[in-house]
Specification:
Layout: H1 3-24, H2 28-36, H3 38-62, H4 67-78, H5 84-91, H6 96-125, H7 136-159, H8 161-189, H9 191-222, H10 227-238, H11 242-250, H12 258-297
Helix pairs in contact: 1-7, 1-8, 1-11, 2-6, 3-4, 3-6, 3-9, 3-10, 4-6, 4-11, 4-12, 5-6, 5-10, 6-7, 6-10, 7-8, 8-11, 8-12, 9-10, 9-12, 10-12, 11-12
Keywords: Membrane, Transmembrane, Transmembrane helix
Transmembrane segments: 6-29, 41-60, 66-88, 100-126, 138-159, 171-188, 200-219, 231-255, 261-282
Organism: Aquipseudomonas guryensis
């Protein structure tokens, strides 16, 4: 299979499977929950859409990343939360319903915010003859392809909840395998750049990930949210949809730049270990309080 075929066939399939898994876990009530609990959702979105891009910009500048790598890191910062955040939040006794709502809402909002953030990054970091603007119309096309499986999954859950529940776990396993393959693909596409820049990009991605987790947990606590909601937002902010960022970077119809996919690929590898450590820490430090809040919410 050629590299072009991998980009045009494999990446859309991988994204479709992952987003189908998200749809199987969603209902319309997950979106309606925004009206019922606006404060945690607005705080989570504020951290995701405002604080993280600023943090990411200063990290890219501070590490002196090459232009394409800096844009790739900004692309990652602009991407919505990943579906794995739900699992990690569950294991850490976070508010999984809040995770689901944030992932659903942020995936839709990202249609508007991703082109804006990425185009600003292209204009700032890239030379005029290197910058290829991320066209809004094309991003909408991609998100239509991405959100289509979500809608299908939601319809399946609505019409056949038993089947949806039975398929949820297998689809999650398949999604995880696809995520690994997408990360490997991104490494293979520009292996020499990975070798040359891995230490610097790895440190930048690790710092961004740790700050994301800290912001996602710390800001909600400062805003007097319960710990379970803070854990949920921390996981949502710390675990990005790296598959989407990689797909946008590699897609011939969008950025078509393998180097831009490297930060998301490295981050996608790092985040599972840091999220696990974060989950262990909050349970070790605040396990009794989380258990009490979980019991009260049940």
């Amino acid at each position: 299979m050629t590299a072009s075929a991998l980009n045009t066939l494999f990446l859309p399939i991988a994204l479709g499977i992952i987003m189908l898994g998200l749809g199987l876990s969603l209902t319309l009530a997950d979106f309606a929950r925004v009206v019922k609990f606006p404060k945690p959702v607005l705080i989570g979105l504020g951290c995701q859409l405002l604080l993280l891009p600023l943090v990411c910009f200063f990290i890219a500048k501070g590490f002196g990343l090459a232009p394409a790598l800096a844009v790739g890191l900004m692309l990652l910062a602009a991407s919505p939360g990943g579906t794995s955040a739900n699992l990690y939040s569950h294991l850490a006794h976070g508010d999984v319903a809040l995770n689901v709502t944030l992932t659903a809402v942020n995936s839709v909002v990202a249609i508007l915010t991703m082109p804006f953030i990425v185009n600003l990054s292209l204009a700032y970091f890239m030379e005029a003859d290197q910058a290829l603007p991320l066209q809004f119309a094309k991003v909408v096309q991609v998100f239509a392809i991405v959100l289509g499986p979500v809608a299908i999954g939601m319809v399946v859950r609505r019409l056949a909840p038993g089947f949806a529940n039975a398929m949820e776990k297998p689809v999650k396993i398949i999604s995880a395998l696809f995520l690994v393959l997408v990360v490997v693909l991104a490494f293979i596409k520009d292996w020499q750049t990975v070798v040359d820049y891995a230490p610097v990009v790895g440190l930048a991605a690790l710092l961004f990930n740790l700050i994301s987790l800290a912001v996602g947990y710390g800001v909600p606590r400062l805003m007097q949210l319960p710990r379970r909601q803070a854990v949920a937002i921390g996981m949502e902010i710390g675990i990005h949809n790296g598959t989407l960022a990689i797909a946008l970077a590699l897609s011939p119809m969008l950025l078509n730049n393998a180097t831009m996919a490297i930060p998301a690929a490295i981050y996608s590898f790092i985040m599972f270990f840091t999220a696990a450590a974060f989950g262990w820490w909050v349970n070790f430090a605040h396990g009794k309080e989380l258990a009490r809040e979980e019991a009260e919410a049940a």
